[in-house]
Amino acid sequence: MNEPLRNRTAKEELEDIPGTYVFNRERCRQGLHLNLLFSSLLKAENRTEFLTDETKYLAKFPLTEEQRRCVLERDWSGMLKVGGNIYHMSKLGGTDQRSFQYLAGAMSGMTQDQYRAMMVQGGRGIEGNRSRKENAGGKS
Amino acid sequence: MAKIIAGIGTSHVPAIGVAVDQGLTQEPYWKPLFDGYGPVRDWMAQAKPDVVILVYNDHCVAFSPASIPTFAIGVGDEFKPADEGWGPRPVPVVKGDSALSWHLAESLVLDEFDLTIMNQMEVDHGLTVPLSITCGQPKEWPFKVVPIEVNVVLFPQPTGRRCFALGRAIRKAVEAYPEDLRVVVFGTGGMSHQIHGERAGLINKAWDTAFLDDLTADPQRLTAMPHVEYMREAGAEGIEMIMWLIMRGALGDDTKEVYRHYHVPASNTAAGLIVLENR
Description:
The structure holds two protein chains of two kinds. Chain A has helices spanning 11-15, 25-30, 32-40, 44-52, 54-58, 65-72, 76-81, 86-95, 100-107, 112-120, 132-136. Chain A is mostly helical. In chain A, α3 packs parallel to α8 (86-95) and α9 crosses α10 (112-120). The longest helix of chain A has 10 residues, at 86-95. By secondary structure, chain B is an alpha/beta fold.
């Protein structure tokens, strides 16, 4: 390849970022039907139908048991681990009248108020949040 | 002939749109951010562009998981604000310049940038929030808009270098357009932010500041930056900053920074804004 190496990112480099689930080809494939479900909630009538009987609505989508559980229990971190994409997930958040800040707090183990306070203080710092390997003190 | 007179880089945080729509901009939380938008509104009122080429990303609204174009261009006469799950934003319908859009689409594809052509497309906060930031709440938006949409959601996003080169090709196309139009290019998204996972809430002011500085001081450093650096240093969703490089590429080699504003937080995000004029 003629491309200089520094402009190409390997999967391992992205997976080394702590607390992060980069939406890549594996997650895109794994989460396709889950994200199609979320996408369906862009229509107001579908939001109503979903909220009326969630289990019945979910039966329209070929989800795994774990994907189904994550949606029904609103396990936001769990959704990320079964291919959920945050932007698609936000449509479920909208259906629940939840804000992005609520979702971000839930995924990082905070209440919305705690999370909001952290952001007002300048957000989560980068030091100690760059690399799993670095944090483990090990070398590759 | 049409001419690109300036570029604007700005965040497009959805909560900024909510603050405008619900009249919260003078609340203590929002006031410092919106105070910094006054000068850019004045600048826009003076510059009076006929058209804004608005580079943004769709947040899985116009594009479902069924199709994910890397680059797309809206060529219609109008673009309606989309329902993103909370109902559509109460903002004016965005008017397109179909003739210019088609000219750009042809010129860009012939220059080997293979954009997806969107005859019909609704637009989300990624496009409408920058309009609210730069125009406030007019009855009609005071210029036409050519939307250029970029995949920043699915890895691999286009490289920064590719984005910069697309900007160059946009400039070439605009300069070949016979109508006398004053054009401003917006690059939107960012700045540092991560809205998912245990690392949600990441902000990196030093990285953001260096990015703003190097838009004029050292664009080559920015175009060489790999995906992992954006995602690690500026948060996974900080990769949106590649879209600012399309704006930068559409300007000349020699640009002058005329305004900058930076504020933390806007919801989950570091909000940045910069105005660059072609010398």
